[in-house]
Write a structure and sequence with these properties.
single chain, 248 residues, alpha/beta, Arginase, Chain A, two-stranded antiparallel sheet, 7 helices, 10 strands, 30% helix, hydrolase, manganese
Length: 248
């Protein structure tokens, strides 16, 4: 099992202790980021990520990508597309990630990647990566129990499919599967940057991911780990979670 590690939260390089990935076969994707705004900096990084993913898919492998936030999923999908695979997206997250620059009241760019995959604000990342926007009906948003009003309004009128973790409505054809670990109930996974209670258990999420992977239609798996540096028993809990998700 080869893991592609993108050890960043947005344009911040994170310490190795943030990612207790299992096994010795890890391909780190790092670079000295250029001057400029955050979009220019992560765009430069994500060009390398998308190229690595495209090489792996083109060589017959299924990329397993671990990173510090959900934005990396844009680069993963772009790489899959570059390899000639027309994949839909299945997005596990406690949040919606469907803000635009205009709709976000916080300005937190980690709340925007799924909407960008659907074509919003394409000049920020998608155009640079060669990411072709997906039609809304080819996106499945799983859980998303914590939505801002603007996100709820968008989803209410969109064709994005929504479902729970235990009953994922898969689109036809190949899939990029994205899992933000904060989809797991905050009580089961300590140390999250954006914890949300009332969610599915760790084991429920892992079993759902296993069922999807078992279909044989997952072209790439992207796992986002937006958590703080580990304390106490956090490292062991996270290592077991990543092992189970990546081996699903």
């Amino acid at each position: 099992m080869t893991i592609t590690l993108v050890p960043y939260h947005q344009d911040e390089r994170l310490p190795d202790s943030s990612f207790p990935v299992p096994g010795p076969d890890v391909i780190p994707v790092t670079r000295e980021l250029p001057d400029g705004d955050v979009w220019q900096r992560i765009g430069a990084l994500f060009e390398l990520v998308s190229a690595e993913v495209a090489d792996q898919v083109g060589g017959g492998s299924r990329p397993l990508v671990v990173s510090g936030d959900c934005l990396t999923a844009e680069a993963v999908l772009a790489g899959v597309q570059k390899a000639g695979v027309d994949a839909s997206i299945v997005w596990f997250d406690a949040h919606g990630d469907v803000h635009t620059v205009r709709s976000s009241t916080s300005g937190y760019i980690g709340g925007m990647p799924l909407r960008q995959i659907l074509g919003a604000d394409s000049g920020l990342l998608a155009d640079r990566l060669g990411l072709r926007p997906l039609p809304e009906e080819r996106a499945v948003l799983v859980d998303a129990r914590d939505l801002d009003p603007a996100e709820a309004d968008f989803l209410a009128s969109s064709k994005v499919r929504r479902c729970g973790v235990e009953d994922v409505d898969l689109p036809a054809g190949p899939i990029v599967l994205h899992v933000d670990v904060d989809v797991i109930d905050a009580g089961d996974l300590p140390g999250l940057k954006f914890p949300v209670g009332g969610g599915p258990s760790r084991d429920t999420v892992v079993e759902s991911v296993r069922r999807i992977m078992a279909t044989g239609r997952v072209a790439a798996l992207s796992v986002a780990c937006p958590w703080h540096l580990p304390e106490g028993e956090d490292a062991g809990i996270r290592e077991r979670l990543l092992r189970d998700l990546l081996a699903a």
